[in-house]
Amino acid sequence: IMTTASDMEGMARFIGADYGKYIIRELSAPDGYLVSRDVISVTIDEGYTNTDKPAATVIDPEKKIMCIKADTSGKPIPGVEFSLYNAATMEKVELHSIMSQMDEFIRYCNKYWTDGSKKLEEGPSEDRRQLLVDCFYLLRVCTLLMHPVVPSGTQKICEYLDFDPARFFSWDADFESMDELCTDQERACGMHRIVELPPRTDFFEAHPSQVKK
User: Fold this and answer.
1) Can you say how many angstroms the Cα of residue 195 is from the centroid of all Cα atoms in its chain?
2) 59-72 average pLDDT score
3) Which of 78, 80, 85, 175 lies most in the core, judged by the most C-beta atoms within 10 Å?
């Protein structure tokens, strides 16, 4: 709908927005800063109130939506580009929104493993096995869904799991069972070997654009 940039006080203003639901996202940032992947949701109506720590300020009489952009020390950042979208009609699927949902799901998976490991540290072997099966399934879901966005990192996961990438990343037979990833010989013996993972292995290295200079 609109695009604007923050001024010397870090203030970005969208003027002329009617009542409705909107989404604000950052488009670019000055040299030395990373573009935020956070999404700001704003609803303008007669009952609009800010949160305790407002991400956006709405002034209804002037039909303005204002955001203040600052760094971690609180210093305003000028020159940051923002875009405003109508939340009800926007047709684009934003990449950072997808990854935000993925991040939430991955945190859930990690918590599932951590809590289960502590609970079953000395539990029955069958329960510990089931935890491994569940967590492998969750890992496969995460890897398959993230593959279009971060192919190199997810392919590295596949390499250490020692599966055929064409089969692992296929959507033709996804999630039917874990057996579908194994060869006939592996299914016959009920075993699949994985590649030993070195300590501190990084599957998702930072992109050069994410490194502060």
Assistant:
1) 27
2) 56
3) 80
Residue with tokens 């994410």: 210
Task: Give residue 188's Cα distance to chain centre.
Answer: 38
In whole angstroms, give the CA distance from residue 14 to residue 3. Answer: 8
pLDDT tens digits, residue range 28-54?
877 777 777 777 777 776 665 544 444
Query: Quick check: 56 and 24 in contact, CB under 8 A?
Result: yes
Q: Is 76 helix (H, G, I), strand (E, B) or coil?
A: strand
Q: Residue 195 carries which side chain, given as an amino acid letter?
A: V
pTM above 0.90, yes or no: no
Which tokens belong to 134? 């569940």
Three-point CA angle 109, 113, 117, nearest 5°: 170
Which ranges of the chain would DSSP assign to H, the alpha helix? 95-119, 125-146, 151-161, 165-168, 184-189
b or e along 82-101 (b: 16 or more beta carbons within 10 Å of the residue's beta carbon)?
Answer: bbbbeeeeeeeeeeeeeeee
pLDDT at residue 55 tops 50: no
Kindly list the strands in the beta sheet with 64-68, ordered across the sheet, starting from the edge strand earlier in the chain. Answer: 11-15, 64-68, 57-59
Question: CB–CB of 158/165 below 8 Å?
Answer: yes
